[in-house]
Amino acid sequence: MTPEEFRIAGHALVDWIADYRERLSRGEFPVQARVQPGDIVRQLPTAPPAAPESFEAMLADLERIVLPGMTHWQHPRFFGYFPAGGSLTSVLADMVSSGFSTIGLNWQASPALTEVEQVMTDWLRDLLGLPSSFSGVLQDTASAASFVALVCARERATHYGATRAGLQGGDAPLVVYTSPQSHSSVEKAALLAGFGREHIRAVPVDAEFRMDPSALAAAISADRAAGLRPAAVVATSGTTAVTAFDPIDAIAAITQPLGLWLHVDGAMGGSAMALPEYRHLWAGIEAADSIVVNPHKWLSVAFDCSLYLVRDPEHLVRVMSTNPSYLQTAVDREVRNYRDWGIPLGRRFRALKIWFALRDQGIDGVRARLREHVRWAQVLQARLTADPAWQIVAPLTLQTLCVRHEPPGLTGEALDAHTRRWAQALNDSGQAYVTPAIIAGRWAVRLSIGAEYTRETDVLALAALCQAAATAA
Ligand code: PLP
């Protein structure tokens, strides 16, 4: 494709995306894809074409094959999982990143790529009210960031022994502490970092699903008494199921004197810290060794874009650096080489998405959007609980409401079956999309607000749709 052909095809594609977004904002599609496993595979050729095909043919297949196979996360009535960043300015920035098609191997390979990232991670840090003692890097996902955090924790606990001698180098097993409410990526990171399942502790939570600091202290003491080496605590700011915030200050009071690494997973809830009125929820955060927040969740930056912040970048670089000769340059001492701040060598120009999105909305716009979502969740709670059959199963902290419809006399497994039935019926109807999840041992339904085109009227419609689905189930 020549630049001139790209100009024509690009205009057509931008028109296609704009039309898609317009149709989406009008709620034209079923929210959940109406396809069965294998439906898309069956429509695709088993091998690439021998001869070139036209761009028109590709665009036609987007409409014919791909669109029906999409579940629409930016649909006004998408209330599943968590909000995914969907601002169109960040979509355009993504296009620029691919337009450059450069790979940020080091500063010299694309100085602007590094320096815009440096400034954008500072902008985000400041937006979240964090002190300038933190330095940031963009990663693809929170899962990768938490893995890096636990590798850094392991290296600090062993005085770099694991990189020197491999996993066999230590004299006592290292232990990681988290809560049963933490995201599955935390367990995955601990396993991949070599801690071993036997050395991951699920510290009990209180009635509001927050890690219990006294139980943490007891677990650490017991492990130390048994000759194990407590190495890291992963606290969550905004747990996946119910958006609970672990008490960072009380946890830090335990980790700091013992020199344990404190990683805070704020993948979802961290974005709320753009609102000063929520910062008490992570009081004590300055003591964290590392924090992850996903702008690609609630900060409207298109996937992927995960902010990883550390207090000691030198330690991060020492753990992650490899520095082969062909990547060394004369300016290495003066610049950041982000390849040494994470796992991949090459990096995309992700920072452009933040730059464009924040300039388009301004901080006032970002805050207004978040506050609207929180308010709508409160409206939804009030609307549903007008009927006593609806139970709120976890405190409403931000924009995710966790509910259960409990008809009189229905308990135990019958209640679980009822919950799953109405949630599935609602999703299958295509009129809204919600996520069932097990909360405190019983199925409940998470209603998560924040899709790009959701408005208050959609939230009110959701209340009516839930009521109708649950009554019919
Ligand atoms: N941590 C929390 C608290 C989450 O809610 C999620 C996603 O739902 C993740 C981590 C994983 O995020 P990512 O997809 O960026 O790895």
- What is the second-level CATH architecture of the largest domain? 3-Layer(aba) Sandwich
What small molecules are bound in this structure?
pyridoxal-5'-phosphate
Give average pLDDT, whole number: 95
Structural class determined from secondary elements: alpha/beta
Order of helices and strands: HHHHHEHHEHEHEHEEHEHHEEHEEH
Strand content: 5-15%
**How many E strands?**
11
Identify the strand order in the major beta sheet.
1-7-6-5-4-2-3
Radius of gyration, CA atoms, in whole angstroms: 24 Å
Give the total of domains.
3
Q: Biggest sheet: strands, sense, closure?
A: 7 strands, mixed
| Highest-level CATH class of the largest domain | Alpha Beta
CATH topology of the largest domain: Aspartate Aminotransferase, domain 2
Number of helices: 15
Q: What is the CATH superfamily label of the largest domain?
A: Type I PLP-dependent aspartate aminotransferase-like (Major domain)
Low-confidence stretches: none
| General shape | globular
Query: Kindly, what is the distance between the CA atoms of the first and last residues, rounded to a whole number of angstroms?
Result: 53 Å
Question: In which range does the helix fraction lie?
Answer: 40-55%
Structure commentary:
Helix 5 (111-127) packs parallel to helix 13 (351-385). The chain is built from 15 helices and 11 strands. The chain folds into 3 domains: 3-30 and 33-70, Up-down Bundle (dopa decarboxylase, N-terminal domain), CATH 1.20.1340.10; 103-348, 3-Layer(aba) Sandwich (Aspartate Aminotransferase, domain 2); 362-472, Alpha-Beta Complex (Aspartate Aminotransferase, domain 1), CATH 3.90.1150.10. The termini are far apart. Strands 1-7-6-5-4-2-3 form a 7-stranded mixed beta sheet, with helices on both faces. Strands 8-9-11-10 form a 4-stranded antiparallel beta sheet. It is of the alpha/beta class and 473 residues long. The longest helix is centred in the last third of the chain and has 35 residues, at 351-385. Strand 4, helix 10 and strand 5 (261-266) form a beta-alpha-beta unit. The site of pyridoxal-5'-phosphate (PLP) has 15 residues, from helix 6.
